[in-house]
Amino acid sequence: RWQKIFMIPLWSKMAVFWNKMFLTIIVLLIVLFLDAVREVRKYSAVHLNEKAANVNTNAFDHIQMKLFRSQRNLYLSGFSLFLWLVLRRTVTLLTQLAKGMASHAALETQVNDATEAARKYMAENEKLQE
Questions:
Q1: How far does Cα 20 stand from its chain's mean position?
Q2: Taking Cα atoms as reference points, which of 78, 85, 71, 5 lies closest to residue 39?
Q3: Domain boundaries, the chain
């Protein structure tokens, strides 16, 4: 039943669109991840310089806040990128499994038909020999 539903030509057209969207989202997540890495490095360097200079606490707290936000963005974008790639791999493996199961079922019916035909011909051969 599901094969009939998913064999509609509309799905193949949508698959091309969603593959492009997937690649766009991956590129966006990579850009966000690299931006977060840059921000963490920037504020980590400022953090060390400001701590050594012993400036007022408000500026130090502001830098700590920016460092925390950049680290949060790094973790979120990195984890999102990782999960997106895991999801893509899972979908790919499930698709391959479904195709393999479909081809296995088709081969099994073919083998059963060939076996039935062979039995039929053997029975006819035995009748002719008698």
A1: 13
A2: 71
A3: 9-94
pLDDT digit string, tens, across residues 50-109: 555 555 777 778 888 999 999 999 999 999 999 998 988 998 888 888 888 878 888 888
- Tokens for 118, please give them: 């062979």
In one-letter notation, the amino acid at residue 7 is M
CA 15 remoteness from chain centre: 14
Angstrom distance (rounded) from CA 100 to CA 117: 25
DSSP codes joined into one string, 64-116: HHHHHHHHHHHHHHHHHHHHHHHHHHHHHHHHHHHHHHHHHHHHHHHHHHHHH
CA distance 91 to 22: 12
Q: What angle do CA 91, 1, 107 make, to 5 degrees?
A: 80
Q: Helix axis angle, 9-53 relative to 57-129, nearest 10°? A: 150
